[in-house]
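3.2 Worked example (two chains)
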Amino acid sequence: MKTPLNQNNDLEAGAIPLLYPSMTENPELRWGFIRKVYAILTAQLLLTIPVAATVYLVPPIAVFLVETWLGWALKHMIIITSLVVLFAMFVYSKQHPLNYMLLGAFTICEALMVGLSCAFTSGKVILEAAILTAVIFLCLTLYTFWAARRGHDFNFLGPFLFSSLVALVVFGVIQIVLPLGKMTHMIYGIVGILVFCGYIVHDTDELIKRYEYDEYILAAIDLYLDILNLFLKLVEVMKDAESSDNA
């Protein structure tokens, strides 16, 4: 539960600046929550990188998952497991330590799929996409904290981003059934990049203002998925650009 400021803790809270002008909760508690979320997010990324790198650097793993029936079945089992675990995390997000166990399983599943998505991509593209993802995430995070401090609110982005995400999913399905040209595919990837940049701003704003203190798992998942999807869209666009240059 959020703790409002009162006369007894004004002096204590006054030592820590407000995150946004209309803030009524104790800033120290909110900063503690934010630090916890980013610590969890960092742990997820530190787990994701070696798992994804293993899939990428050991080609037989990707070949097995893509070119064999057993691997195909295992790949789809990983996807289904990831979705089931994600649903379970929403249900049990406040039950410790089960929430952390589910988060670890979800992170491993996502890391395997990220590694597989990058398996047949050049190392140059992967490195450039990783650097761009880190820079974009850092810049958008700092901007959102700066904007919130000055009274800006990004909650209005929610409906637009959700509608855009649904449109991206539908368009992706259409591309599977009716493949379009390379230029259209690149535009689709660029739109995806913009959508997930918007989600980083929106979810960071939610982290600053609206998440309850016991929703740290949900907050970390949102930011983690924003980062992964942004990275994969950057890889997709840069891969298309590289193939166009080589054509």
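3.2.1 Second chain
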Amino acid sequence: MTRIPENDREIIETALYLPMLLKILERDKVLIEQGSFKIKSPYVDIVENAIVTVRKDLKNAEDHLHKEKIKLAEIKRDADFTMYSFIYKGVEEHHNYFNPRLRNRTEELLRLYLQKDSTG
């Protein structure tokens, strides 16, 4: 059972997922730029806008974690699970995340950020 309030847990998970999303977006931007698209700039613009928004949201999450003295670290990874350590108010908790769930949630966020930035 976690002692971390839901609001702080959501911010911790934001700080967990957004770096993964940022890595994907940056890699995809390179692939688009190198790809054989007839007109690349609209795709690049959408991805770049998403990157800017993700970076801003990640900075806000990291600022909150720093202010509240919350620490997050990946401590173990295997084929099925990734374990993270959350230090909250001096108490360390370990949380296992199912790797397909990490991937699925990152994909959900990717869709949200791309839609958000393509619709204005």
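3.3 Remarks
Residues 6-118 form one domain.
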